Amino acid sequence: SLNRGLPPPMVSVNFCVQDITEMNGAMRIVPGTQTIGGIKGAYDPRALESFRLCPVNAGAAIIRDVRVLHSGTPNLTPKPRYLPSVEYISMDL
């Protein structure tokens, strides 16, 4: 189930095909939120105040537990920002 601890039941790998910056829509995450009960968990909205912006260089990958609260930020440039991904799911799910 998605409500278990470690290992994560599902991970996402985002491939950075271009620099991801604060200007073109970097991902933001709220560290530790994967431990609050999975998709059925409740969280304290104040946790959103502790988000971290994650700019990443082209050629890198972002590997994350899908239960981590995350979002994109606005792309303030005239160019599209691409972030292809692959998800891996545990057979135990």
Radius of gyration over alpha carbons?
14 Å
Biggest sheet architecture: 3 strands, antiparallel
Strand order of the largest sheet: 4-1-6
Q: Which shape, going by the Cα principal axes?
A: flat
Oligomer: single chain
Counted beta strands: 6
- Count of runs of 4 or more consecutive helical residues: 0
The string of secondary-structure elements, in order, is EEEEEE
Strand content: 25-35%
Low-pLDDT ranges: none
Structural class: mainly beta
* Terminal CA distance: 5 Å
Helix percentage range: under 10%
Overall mean pLDDT: 85
Topology:
Blueprint: E1 10-15, E2 27-29, E3 52-54, E4 61-65, E5 70-71, E6 85-89
Antiparallel strand pairs: 1-4, 1-6, 2-3, 2-5
Features:
93 residues, 3-stranded antiparallel beta sheet, mainly beta, 6 strands, single chain
